[in-house]
Specification:
The protein contains 19 helices and 31 strands. It starts with 22 loop residues before the first strand and ends in a 5-residue tail after the last strand.
Length: 637
């Protein structure tokens, strides 16, 4: 299994013991400035692998190779320099650690030089080595001038210029080591590895998918965050399909697991290459949700402007899709798409209009909330500053029926524990109510709303016997802890009473709860006759706790006042005796009884009729004659 079946194997194939020090280097620069030639000189790999590329002498798609040194493995991603192929450049740039910007000494800085650098800067790449190629075609004066121009270009960007290194292929024969190669390799193998952002999950974008004989589906891509191990289950987000990693390779070698800053080939089960596309995201199940609308912060490239309600191409990770942009405020926008966008908080992206790169930014709200603009803008402003306490206050106010932080990793780049600490602090300040067990926050106004709703229940039914569990059946959005808090506050304020785990109206007039309920339940079952409602519906009608209701039904059954005919069918013994007499009379009249005959006397639903016929099976003088037909075992006398 190889990441690139057409790629020659590097001569040094010994096992890599420095995987945590490995880096990914991305080559960028204007067309025909020598990126592919530089790679060939470094490791012998010819990136122009397709016939069209060889004929035209330019790279049309991403190419991947690597160089093993004594201290680290250096993976190279060579991207096209042509203006019409910038989309391929963006697709390859998202996962790199170091930018290797190639500028031809004779041409100098060109349009794609500027565009590639601006894109790399926007995508958060922190360091760059600039290679001044074709140094043999420039005088020392021109070389000095080019270095000054490059230094000035970088002054307008946050990406750090590590060094400018001249390079040339002229005069390098097969028997002679190119003098420019070793200094560049030394620099690349000693550069400090930049700290990558840990998204708190596996983030792996597919860039290629193909079949390998005897192995099946193989995908290649860059592991941006997390670790992937053999036999691990992963989810392909765009098609919502769970797969398993049968095997994985890093630079043509089998490994037990992969870490960030590696080009990784995965042999996947339960899928095939035909259903996979470049840019599909692999992660663990339950970590990432897709949204058709996300909120972002955008900064335009020099000379560019955004148009409200206009269509653009969004490049995020290795994927691109069409979006419509709506401007909300200064730098704050919403992006909507017909396809779900699987984005992460503070994930960088690029926006393009046709063949023009307009700008880029970071994702602020990857799971959009249906809120009005006047509320959304303060929320996004808080997220820009990473002011999570303020953002959580706003979101809790918006989601009055519960703001959950289960998806904190995707939404805020926070672990559950980090989100819980923030919400617990807000809870202690009295700003929100936070249920630590359920990881859900509510506005404090919801406790007052619940207290009023509970009091209203007692006004309408002074015999109601409530618990947090029984109330949750009515208010499914409320957690048990929130309901318990509302009940406890009413008790503390002397509006209601508490007996053990039950809550009662102050004027309930009940001396013995269980005796009272036994009488109430028996009376209701008697009134319902041959069509008693299911126990839970009975408890709900009485507004009593289910656990207590079950206890009372067991007491009634034990005392033989009530019979349990089926799982959810309890009937009084008196009613069942009368019903048995009716059914026996039908048998004596017709010689048998079935559903149709019983329904002609008792117009009940089929559920009741079948259970009552089956009840007859307990009598020794009655036998089954078919599925739903009963007769006297010894015939009519």
């Amino acid at each position: 299994m190889s990441e690139n079946p057409n790629k020659p194997t590097n001569s040094d194939t010994k096992s890599d013991t420095h995987t945590h020090n490995d880096i990914i280097v991305g080559l960028a620069g204007h067309i025909d400035h020598g990126k592919t030639s530089l790679i060939r000189a470094l490791n012998g790999f010819d990136g122009d692998r397709m016939q069209e590329e060889k004929e035209r002498g330019i790279t049309l798609d991403l190419s991947f190779s690597h160089l093993r040194t004594p201290t680290r493995n250096i993976a190279f991603i060579d991207v096209p320099g042509h203006e019409k192929l910038i989309r391929q450049m963006i697709a390859g740039a998202y996962g790199i650690d170091v930018l290797l910007l190639v500028v031809a000494a004779d041409d100098g800085i060109m349009p794609q030089t500027r565009e590639h650098l601006a894109i790399a800067d926007m995508l958060g790449i922190t360091q760059c080595v600039c290679v001044l190629s074709k140094a043999d075609k420039a005088t020392s004066t021109l070389i000095a001038q080019r270095k000054a121009e490059i230094t000035e270009l970088f002054s307008a960007h946050t990406i750090a210029l590590v060094e400018i290194m001249p390079f040339s292929l002229l005069g390098s024969a097969e028997s002679t080591r190119n003098p420019y190669i070793d200094p560049l390799i030394t620099l690349l193998q000693t550069l400090p590895k930049p700290k990558r952002r840990d998204y708190g999950m596996v983030v792996y974008y597919i860039d290629r998918a193909f079949s390998v004989a005897g192995a099946g589906c193989v995908v290649t891509g860059t592991l941006v965050s997390g670790e992937i191990a053999k036999s691990q289950d992963l989810l392909i987000c765009e098609i919502q399909k769970q797969v398993q990693v049968r095997n994985l390779q890093i630079h043509d070698e089998d490994h037990a697991h992969a870490t960030p800053s590696h080009r990784v080939a995965l042999n996947l089960t339960h899928t095939n290459p035909h259903e996979l596309q470049r840019g599909f995201l692999l992660t663990q199940k339950g970590f990432v949700r897709g949204a058709n609308l996300i909120d972002v912060w955008v900064r335009c490239f020099e000379g560019m402007n955004l148009r409200h309600n206009a269509n653009y191409e969004l490049y995020i990770g290795a994927r691109h899709l069409s979006v419509r942009l709506n401007i909300l405020d200064d730098g704050l926008c919403s992006l909507s798409s017909k396809e779900p966008i699987f984005a992460l908080f503070m994930q960088p992206f690029i926006l393009r209009d046709g063949n023009v790169s307009v700008g880029g930014g970071v994702v602020l709200n990857p799971i959009n909330d249906p809120i009005k603009k006047k509320t959304k803008i303060p929320l996004l402003q808080a997220l820009v500053k990473r002011d999570f306490p303020q953002a959580f206050k706003i979101l809790t106010h918006i989601h009055r029926h519960g703001f959950g932080v289960v998806s904190s990793t995707q939404r805020f780049g926070l672990s559950h524990q980090e989100s819980s600490v923030i919400l617990q602090n807000l809870h202690e300040e009295g700003a929100v109510f936070f249920d630590q067990r359920e990881l859900v926050a509510y506005p404090m106004s919801e406790i007052e709303w619940l207290k009023n709703a509970i009091l209203d229940i007692f006004i309408k039914n002074k015999h109601a016997l409530l618990s947090a569990q029984s109330l949750q059946l009515k208010y499914k959005w409320a957690s048990l802890q929130l309901l318990q808090s509302a009940l406890s506050e009413l008790v503390a304020q002397r509006f209601i009473l508490q007996r053990d785990s039950l809550f009662l109206a102050k004027n309930n007039g009940i001396d013995d709860i269980e005796e009272f309920l036994e009488d109430r339940i028996y009376t209701l079952l008697s009134e319902q006759g041959y069509a008693p409602i299911a126990p839970y519906n009975l408890y709900d009608s009485l507004e009593i706790d289910r656990k207590l209701g079950d206890k009372i039904l067991k007491r009634l059954s034990k005392s033989q006042k009530v019979l349990r005919v089926a799982h959810n069918l309890f009937i009084t013994t008196d009613s069942m005796s009368k019903l048995t007499a009716i059914m026996r009379e039908i048998i004596h009249t017709h010689g048998y009884i079935d559903i149709a005959l019983l329904r002609s006397v008792l117009p009940l639903s089929r559920k009741y009729l079948i259970n009552y016929l089956e009840y007859l099976d307990k009598f020794g003088d009655i036998s089954k004659d078919g599925e739903n037909r009963r007769v006297l075992r010894y015939g009519l006398s």
